[in-house]
Structure formats: C-alpha cells, structure tokens
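Researcher: I need the complex structure. Ligand is adenosine-5'-triphosphate. Inputs:
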Amino acid sequence: MIELKGLWKSFEDNEVLRGLDLTIKQGETIAIVGSSGCGKTVLLKHILGLLKPDKGKVLVDGIDINANSSHLFDVRKRFGVVFQSCALFDSLKVMENVIIGLKEHCSEMGLKKMEDIGKEKLDLVGLYSETYHLKPQELSGGMKKRVAIARALSMNPEYIIYDEPTTGLDPIMSEKMNNLMLRLKESLEKTTIMVTHDLHSAFKVADRISMLAEGRIVFDGSPREAQKTDNHWMKAFVQSSPL
Ligand SMILES: Nc1ncnc2c1ncn2[C@@H]1O[C@H](COP(=O)(O)OP(=O)(O)OP(=O)(O)O)[C@@H](O)[C@H]1O
Ligand SMILES: [Mg+2]
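Model: Output:
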C-alpha cells in the first residue's frame, strides 16, 4: 500500500502540491488524471523518492521512504517505471535496454539468463526477435513504449508506474497500448499507477480514477462514478475530453 499524507511541494513560488492526500491499495490499478502541468509527474516523482516533499510523508507499506536513504534504495527496486519520454538509451539495442537493470543489480545471474528474462518480457509486450538488435531510433513510438514496459517488468517489480502511456501515439497505437496495459493488468495482477491526461485510456484501463487539480485530489471514484459525477472538476474534465 502507498500512502501520500499531506504532501506539499513548491518550486520557488510555484506551489504544485498543496496538502495532497492519496492512498493506493494493493492490487488496484489507479489512474491519476489532470490537465497538463497540474503536477502529475511531480506526484509520481514523490512516490519514487526522486523528489522530496517540503512537508508531508510518502509511506510504502508503512515505511517512510524519506526517513533514510537505505529505505529509498530498497523501495525503488520495488517499482517498474515507464517514463513519459520512455527514457531508452539511444546507444543500446532493444535487448540491452531491457536487461540494463538486471546487469546492474543481478550481475551474478549471467548474460544468458538475463537475455532469457529479456525475451520473456519482450514476448509479453508483443515484440519479437527481429527487434532485439534494433536501436531506439529505428523503432516507432509504440514500439519504444513496449520496450520501456518490458524494461520496467524485467526486475519483476511489485508496482508498475506508467507516466502518460498513450501520449504521442496515434489513436490506433493508443488503443493497442490500452489493450496491452489491460492484458498485463489481468495477467500480472500488480498494483499499477497510471498518470495520464487521456481520460479514454484511464476509463478503459483503471479500476479507480483520482483527479489532481490545484495541488490536491479533487475527485476519487470508479470510472463509472467519474462519468456520472456532479463534482465540477471531474465533470469539466469529462466534458472537455473526447471519449
Ligand atoms: N524540477 C522542477 N523544477 C521547477 N519546476 C518544476 C520541476 N518539475 C516540475 N515543475 C513544475 O511543476 C508543475 C507541474 O509539472 P508536472 O511535470 O508534474 O506536470 P504534469 O501534470 O505531469 O504535466 P503533463 O501532463 O504536461 O506531463 C509545472 O508548473 C512545472 O513547470
Ligand atoms: Mg507529466
């Protein structure tokens, strides 16, 4: 379980998080939605300990991740992250990108075993052996996202985080990405946090929708509740989003 308690974060005079509270339960898939620039990525970076709150706490299974640096290191290993930009290494081939975490943290495993795991994860996201030797610049946007997902899964994390998984993809690719996330949700049953301004994607994939605005969670409910709510934030967001 992840608990965000009274998080405040400013960058100079830009108050991005203003007393944000949110609990993410084990096994659920939550979508954190909100307009561009509202602080979704900043929120994710707090969950990963990449940013520290000015005030408030981030608890992962009851442990305050910012209490000491060894907690932070232990906690980070439990997350597989698909960054907004994919963050693939341009000089490395697909397979090398996927197994980079294993090389760093599990070197005793040997290359053969690492590549077997890499192959298993690439199979899972629907990428086949013809792609293993390609470099990121030779891949389409959708393929890059798949490689980033395979890499996020390589260390068998407890939590999966997707930051804007459909941004930059055309409608057909976006739908394929939604179907892939749904398939992984059903087969892996991992606690998943997706951050998106794509409401269609959130409705399709998530069990629960939380909306971030003005530095706080202003709506929290099921996709069905989100579609029917009178909450003015969520209602305006639904009306402005083509579904
Ligand atoms: N390291 C930083 N230093 C200064 N300001 C920052 C930093 N990171 C984020 N911000 C500011 O925090 C605000 C929220 O940014 P964030 O990237 O979280 O938005 P977002 O909701 O993820 O937007 P998008 O949907 O476009 O990805 C923005 O005003 C941004 O300029
Ligand atoms: Mg963002």
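Model: Summary of the prediction. Strands lie at 2-11, 14-24, 29-33, 55-60, 63-64, 79-82, 159-163, 191-196, 208-213, 216-221.
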